[in-house]
Amino acid sequence: MNQQPTGRSATTDRNVERYLGAVADHLAVLGVPADRSGQHLAEMAAHLRDSGADPWAEYGTPERYARSLAEADGLPARPLGPPAVAAAVAGVTLAIGLTLIVRGGRPTELRWAAIASVAPFAAIAGFSATVWGARIRDARLPGSPDGARAARLLVAWIAVAAVGAAVASAVAGATLGERRTVWPDVPSWATGLALVTVGGLALALVSRLPRFPGGSGLRGSRFARRIRLP
Amino acid sequence: MAARRPDESDARRAQWLKGVLEPCLLGVLSLGEAYGYEIAQTLERAGLGEVKGGTLYPRLSAMETAGLVEVEWRVGDNGPGRKYYRLTPAGRAAQQEAAAEFGRFTAVALALIGGTPVPPPPPPTGPALAGGTVDLEETRR
């Protein structure tokens, strides 16, 4: 059977690349393994190259197409995957670190109840960053239907999570907290700075993982390198 | 009666396509292995209309997951690698079963659409009936 290779402009190629990147983001959010994700993306790239079709017209929105692929692969839709959990843990570390920095030169103390109360809000922030962040990336692509709305929702959810974490931490610390001095000789600011550094590095590291929405299953896949992508 | 608008016709065809796509894919692949874009072109040339990648590939993936097709990647000389699909033994059996079932189904549907009276299907023959008479008094108790 014959194929119809088409000459394509650099703009079209960039559009295709961005579209594939957005699908990779959504596949990662849905928990599709990087190697399988790479196969889907390579097949899409080959089809678009053969047909010369616009990816939006051919596949619909990246989110919807990624979801249909994940369902076809028999994977349950699970937007709260390991990347979101890792981001939430890094968020908790950052939050504790910042709290300790504010305490200044007093001995390093922790209230476990306050930490526990912050955790759910950190999870909300991680979930929001994972899901809405991927949709915001779609906003850079022409024809994206809900990018601006996703940006507003991300800001709103992060704000809700931050306010909720602050209130919960204060209430838990005042009413339930058993204050435990961890390192009496180490000032709070030093411990806080160390935690912020560790949390920041962890977040930077996690964001480079192939399965994190900021990464790409396409580039993270050994398979993708093997089959030569356009 | 007013003529249907083209977009209504397209929507109707798209709806029908959902029901027949997998049997058609099985049928196309029974003729030989093919990659996705080839399959889409074959379906379009056959008159099913344009089959978008967004419809085709998830269905092929589901068939792969179900073990109806197996895949093989081949590296292209001047382009990207291509994913070839071919029927597994289970897929070939499913294709033959689908062909027989769909034949019966479309015969009835065509008759109904054409306004032809369709006789009811024969009652199923269970073990009791096949074995002879049924004791009605026994069944009442």
Give a short overview.
Chain A is mainly alpha-helical and 230 residues long. Chain A is 70% helix and 6% strand.
Word description of this protein:
Chain A has ten helices and two strands, in the order αααααβααβααα. Chain A is mainly alpha-helical and 230 residues long. Chain A folds into two domains: 10-78 and 215-227, no CATH class; 82-206, no CATH class. In chain A, helix 1 (10-29) crosses helix 4, helix 1 runs antiparallel to helix 6 (112-138) and helix 5 runs antiparallel to helix 8. Chain A is elongated and about 65 Å long. The model of chain A is unreliable at 1-7, 141-145 and 210-230 (pLDDT under 50). Chain B is mostly helical and 141 residues long. Chain B has one domain: Winged helix-like DNA-binding domain superfamily/Winged helix DNA-binding domain (Arc Repressor Mutant, subunit A). Chain B has six helices and three strands. Chain B has helices at residues 6-30, 36-48, 53-65, 89-113, 127-131, 136-140, and strands at 34-35, 69-74, 82-87. Chains A and B meet through helix 2, helix 3 and helix 4 of A and strand 1, helix 2 and helix 3 of B.
Total helical elements of chain B: 6
Our count of helices of chain A gives: 10
Question: What is the share of helical residues of chain A?
Answer: 55-70%
Relative strand content of chain B: 5-15%
Quaternary form: heterodimer
CATH secondary-structure class of chain B = Mainly Alpha
Spatial order of strands in the largest sheet of chain A: 1-2
Approximate shape of chain B: flat
Alpha carbon gap, first and last residue of chain A? 22 Å
The average pLDDT value of chain A, as a whole number, equals 71
